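batch job 7 of whatever, protein = HTH araC/xylS-type domain-containing protein
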Amino acid sequence: MAETLFSFDSRNYLECQHKFRGTRDQEYYRGDFWIEHASNVDVRSERKAVGPISLIRQQSATNLFFRRSRQHIREDATDLSVLWFVRRGELAFSNQCGNKTAKSGDFAITQSMSPFFIECRTDNEGMHEMLHVTVPTHILRGHIQHDFSVGLFMPADRPELAVAENLLTRAFEDDGRLGEDSLRLLVDTALGLIGNAMRASEELQPVRQSIADRRLEEVLRFIEVHLSDPQLSTTMVARGCAISPRYISFLLRRRETSFSELVWEQRLAKAKDWLANSDPRDISISEIAYGVGFKSPAHFSRMFKRVFGANPRDYRGDCGVQDAAPVPVGTPERFAEYAAASQLLQ
């Protein structure tokens, strides 16, 4: 459940500077905060903590102001980024690089380690509302690589931003039915979507893909989808992507790999992960070998040991699980089917 971070009206709004960070100064960072005197002072901020991240819904019937100076930064070097979803009114932001304004429906990111001045303005109906998210900057950089140290503003017309806001709102409004892991997943997904929106925006749009790049993406996707098929071959990929096997070899050389190297690398990586995260009572090594597209457990064991330096059984034991007794996989006919499979990739 969300909790009240602060609430000010005409009786106590002059106390805002000492109380806006919560009862134990656990939120935000040091700065100067004040509320414009008006006949109707009504400011409320509610907070929902999800791990080190805070979701904060702020509503106000008057203008709000916040300033963070170099002196504040020297006294409090907390490096937080704030993600702002403006719902009503405006967010006016000023720093050494100039002035920016986020209007209703816009999205912005500000960071605490550069001086700035913010004004939260009410709309024509005298209301200001926004959902903002305080995130330790080192966590946010795991999702957004763009430099936002001096502020980043953009219209929230990207569908990723709309979905991200919905996810964050859902997490904020949760009444306790979602567990902590689920809440963190919602927030992490929202941050990932925001990162995708940043990369897809016009200002950050990468160089237009060439035809070869698009074809390579199609090839890699086809291989990923059909990786478990022991019959996977360049002929099969060429047919599925409507290009020639020779062109596939050309595309993969651009990645400094070959078809067989790429397929074996992906199959072994998936098998390694599967071995490390499965119980031998649920699935045997043979089933894992067939599940990632190998034609025989023996071939799988040889290649696994060649690459990782241990056979699958020993590796699984080193990961903390004891292998169960061998379990027959399927029927004799199924074994015969695998034994008779094409040897194109062996």
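notes: The chain is about 40% helix and 25% strand.
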